[in-house]
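Running this now, will post back.
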Amino acid sequence: MNIIIVTISIIILAAYCITIIIFMIAFISKKTDYPKPIIQQILVSVIIAYRNEENNINETLQSLINQTYKGDYEILLINDHSKDKTSTTISKYKDKRIKNYKLPNNKYGKKAALRLGVGYAKGEVLLFTDADCVVPSQWVEIMTNGILSYNVDMLCGPVVFRNSPSIFSSFFKLEFMSMTGSGASGFFINQPFMCNGANYAIKKDIFLKNINNLNEKYSSGDDVFLLHNIAKTGKVKFIKNNNLTIITQAPTSLRSFFSQRIRWASKTSGYKKPFAIYTTILLALMSLVLILLAILSIFLSNMWKLFLISFLVKSIIDTLFMIPVCKFYKQDDLAMLTPILQFFYPIYVVTTAILSIVYKPYWKGRKIS
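Update: finished.
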């Protein structure tokens, strides 16, 4: 029995380490992207679905108004039945580029809001972000240049958490950077499996062709399901340029953190892309191995060495990966917190995976599906 446990543990650890090392090499090897400026400026549509964002929408709109893009662009905001004063705040802006729409009473959810927004959009290129984000001044310009000059169907960009008042702020930010860094690395090895809905561009005709692939069964995942489907036959790319990093709101407590992660994890059962399934299962298995070895070490004296070795090896590999990722996000000091995160990470991964199956939390006053 011990031999079987040791063998399985070593195989899973080896698979995990090899995967992360490949990610690390790919991330380090990928140089910064500087897309060529387009000659003819085109109309661009920025689409934002929102629900109860009165505390954040001003920052988002101010950052979108002050863009360097020389062409025309419109900002389409879709109200997903907000119960606060977000819509009232938006109405105070007299900028003709800002257009505010409301979902009909028989429609609800972010995916329905995006569908409506795309229906109203007049641009050839669609840019998506969220209503709690601050976008850099060159975002519209560089993302538009990128999707056209690279001739791709979907272009994904970097996102980072802003500092939050939570005492866990640094760990929230570090964990999120590990996700976005892994997602970017997937693109770099031609295995795109994850992106973030707060920062991506897509050609309008491509979106319309894939409009029925948003997987309405799940509340979240509009970005990932689009990516998986477009990547089957089209061209997708992650643009590695820190000047395009969008800053989004971080969870303010452990409760909100787990609610967010359960919401994100709930869509993984809908994955059909092999590499996305592989990374999801591998992460869960690696976490289970560490938890199992830690428990067995209490009862079997010969297991503590395997646990210690596994823990140290994973900590070292993860830290080596996070060093270039944190450097890219200009958060170099956070990389050294990676070993500390290892004490909680396996428990968090397994707990989130289980809860996403048996428990559906409320998100902005609405129970997720």
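The first helix runs from residue 2 to 29. More later if anyone needs it.
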